[in-house]
Amino acid sequence: MNQPQADGYGTFLCCRLAVFAALLSAAGCQQPGPPLPEEAQAKLEELDAQGGYRPERIYSTNEVRETWKHLHAELDISFLAPSGSGRFPLVVYLPGLGEDATAGAFWRRSWAAAGYAVFTVQPAALGKVFWASDKLDAGELRATGRTYFSSASLESRLSHLAWALGELRQRAATPGNPYAVADPAKAAVAGFDLGAQAASALAGEAVKAAFPANAEFRFAGAVVLSPHVTLAEGKLDERAAGIAMPLLAVTGTDDDDPYGMSATSLRSALWQSMPAGGKYLLVLQGGTHDTLAGVEPGQKWKGPPSQPVPGEGSEGGGWLPWSGDDLTLQVGQRSGTAGARNGSASGPSGGPMRSVERPLRKRGPDVRHWAEVAGVSTAFLDLVLKGRERAREWLDRDAGRWMGASAELRHK
User: In this predicted model, which residue has the larger pLDDT, 92 or 9?
Assistant: First the structure.
């Protein structure tokens, strides 16, 4: 029987910080990962006390990192799960372009500490796409996006994923194997950026990519972080009609497309076209693309080595190379983007978006956004995979009050 790692409110609150922060110093909640900057740690504790979502139990975690080989490709694998005996619902996480299997650490640690086995798969070559470049202009980024977001690339990634999930199922059925704590019969898929494209396809979006004929894995829900939506791929209503499973889409009003393929305003459009039933949309006010990557505070994002600059060049934006310091998500000290690269007359919720014609500036801390995505996504998983009614109540009633003007959560 699975047991929580701590009792009593004081230790519980300590573990709640571990859910968000992977704190090495949290008694009874030790897990891999660097400690948070003190300012971020204090802010997360404050936010939690104000009404953040609380899972039923908090677990310490173990992580396995391996390389699996499928055909001629190496697959970067990470498996982060509660320690101890028992079986836990499975979350399959698919990273973005340029990210390896350690990506999305903030989200993955939150889910694992809440009682989920998180299995991350990324073809190793995709994690190395930007290794040789410290600067890419707009044309190079656009060409890179067209290559890796293509139907052929998606089909290849789905083939690798289908094989990896079959391998995981076999290992999970072997007693004593580290993967045996995963319960593939209760599974959800989550993805960011390039992984979001695959997660949407697995959720039922009609795409021009063939699924492996022997793919038998079934998901009960999906979390799509920064949905990849382009009008060039066809009518949204037709593409979204088949998305019947519960789904949480997460975006931000400044969720700019590094590849110039999808306008910020389009990221919520696929959700709006989906049939009703268990569908949630979280929109972070001022939320950026790199925030949704789930990089732990103080760590570097491994995405494209460029960022859009509004008001310069074609389509409303030019490009500015990132420095190593700019890649670090530092509390109160991070350079940010301003506005939707392609412009928009309306925001994700139908209201006006902020003007794209504003100067580049230093952003404030992203701590509240980290807490909001972790809290809402964990509650969504608790509802879909564990049937927890408290999660439904929190999502439908308490989450909005807790987030205030910082974010909007919609449901249909």
Answer: 92
